[in-house]
Amino acid sequence: MRQAGRLLKHMRQLSTDKAYSMSEFIIPTKFKTVLQAARHCAGCNDKGSEFQTPSYALKSGGLVRRLAEIKQSQALQKSDTVNAECCVQFLKLVELNWTLDISAVALRNLSERKRCGVRYLPLTEDVVKLNQYLVSQGNEAVQKLTTGSDSETYMRLTQLTLVKTILFNRKRQGEVSKITVDDYEKKAKGDCSHEMTKALTEFERCLLNVLERVEIRGKKDRTVPVLLTEEMNTWIQKMLQYRCTFVPVTNKFLFATSGELSHFRGSDVLRQFASESGATKPHLLTSTKLRKHIASTVQVVSLREHEMDGLARFLGHDLRVHRDFYRLPNDIIEIARISKLFLAAEKGVLVDFAGKELADVTIAPEEEVASSDDTEGDEETEDTDWTEKSASELPLQRPQVDNLASVSEKRLQRQQESVNSTVQEQHESDFEETEYPKAKKRKMPVRRKWTASEKDEVAKHFAKEIVNKCLPGKSAIDEFLKKTGINRKWSNVKDFLRNQYLK
After folding, report:
1. 489 touches 382 (CB < 8 A)
2. Which residues, 6+ apart, have CB-to-CB distance to 211 below 8 Å?
């Protein structure tokens, strides 16, 4: 109605007769006046190439069509064929001209603004601050209600619980605000006896015993889930305990005010507590931006298709909407991960990563160079810390190999004595060298990559050192290698930790 009022106001200003009603403008001869009024409402510039409010320009098209359909319906009910035919002709003009004159310009403006505009998401530290503030204030409100109940404390606990539920679930504020008491009473935990739980980890099975699930009505009448932690359940139980004292019986909403049919608006209370929490940028802590924040940050987890679909359904939309509108482009992801494809292609090694996920594609930093005899494919290889030169760039002549090897005098003498034979012994060095007679096969150092299981073992065993940003000693690494049976040198493990985690 507000949009229709603005449109009628501008149409009257453009018309000679100020007393025209909306119905009198819905005729073919007044179509240009309606079109011009819609442009003025959207803030069109003199050239007609840009709208100050392009979203209103798009909405005005649907509004005008709906007004014409209402007039047509009323005319048909009165058997007024003249006015009904006028509406048909008016709708035909809208169909022919509105898209070209209004919608196309508005869509172009929106696309340009989206491309050039700066996208702001909540700071992670602000989200943490808000959560800590809600927890401290919520527990304090529960204690106050226990010692002596009063209306102000009860209403504050209700608001804190509402914001905590929105923040934890990243739900639309309107959906959570309208949860009813009946919805909450139907909550349930996961069925731990179901055969599907055998595929879960121990931690995931524990979550089934802790979190409870409530199904509520979402956008477009979808049924969407809301998860409740034990802490949130404690707060809600305390609210229900004192509810009859402060909330009318006729009020069905869980986050109810003192009115009979009203509830707290999530956007209002979220804005209030965001400011009180001491966040650096509280204006970014809105339910919509929080949803985009989680959708953008989970990109680092490399969710698979079905996992992304599950996240999208939990947020209350489909996968296409999740990709196009919520999961904003992330410069960190593009630089840190997508760029690896182009670096690999540039080096000509892209085919080496066939069948691997993007997160597993590594270019140099965690790869090692080992020696491999061309005549014996199953010979045990030794590790080294070559990270900058590929096999094709390694020297082929003996003096260059000696310079790069940095071997002891004893090793060098042994190599000189075995010019015409293949060295079979393994040395405690970064790589092995084998001398061949001239014009015979030469041994080339090759890379031996860290497997995913080896990476996991290293990260799990040395988690404390990684967190404290310190390297373990030789004895600790030797003990780890003996325990896990990983065929690596202690120096290679140390180099891997340094390159991967402690740069």
Report:
1. yes
2. 189, 190, 227, 228, 229
| Mean pLDDT, all residues of the chain | 76
Integer Cα distance of 26 and 15 in angstroms: 13
Round to whole Å and give the CA distance between 252 and 165: 18
Tell me what pLDDT residue 303 has: 58
Whole-number pLDDT of residue 368 = 45
Question: Which residue positions in the chain have pLDDT lower than 70?
Answer: 18-19, 117-119, 192-193, 195-196, 203, 297-351, 353-447, 503
pLDDT at 437: 47
Q: Report helix angle 230-246 to 151-169, nearest 10.
A: 150
**CA–CA gap between residue 395 and residue 400 (Å, rounded):** 6
Domain boundaries, the chain: 2-116, 124-326, 367-448, 452-501
Q: How far apart are CA 291 and CA 12, in angstroms?
A: 42
The amino acid present at 17, given as its one-letter code, is D
Q: Which two tokens stand for residue 181?
A: 């008491």
Place of tokens 């949130």: 232
- Angle (CA) 246-157-166 rounded to 5° is 120
Q: Residue 76's pLDDT is what? A: 94
Residues with Cβ within 8 Å of 319's Cβ and at least 6 positions away in sequence, in order, are 308, 309, 312
CATH number belonging to domain 124-326: 1.10.443
